[in-house]
Amino acid sequence: MKQIRFLSLTLLGAAFIFGGCNQGAKNKSMIQKELIGTYKGKEVYQMTLKNKSGNVIRLTNFGARITWIEVPDKNGARENVAFGFDTFDGMIKGDPYFGAVVGRYANRIARGKFSLDGVGYSLALNNGPNSLHGGPGGWHSVVWESEIIKNAEFPTVKFSYKSPDMEEGYPGNMNIEVTYTWNDKNEIVIDYACTTDKKTVLNITNHAYFNLHGAGNGNILDHQLVIKASGFVPVDSTLIPTGEIRPVAGTPFDFTTPHTVGERIAENYDQLIYGKGYDHTFVLDNKEEVDASVYEPVSGRLMEVISDQPGVQFYCGNFLDGSKIGHGGKPYIYRSGLCLETGHFPDSPNHPDFPSTVLNPGETFKSQTIYRFSVK
Ligand code: BGC
Question: Which domains does the chain have, with CATH numbers?
Answer without folding.
Answer: 21-375 (2.70.98.10)
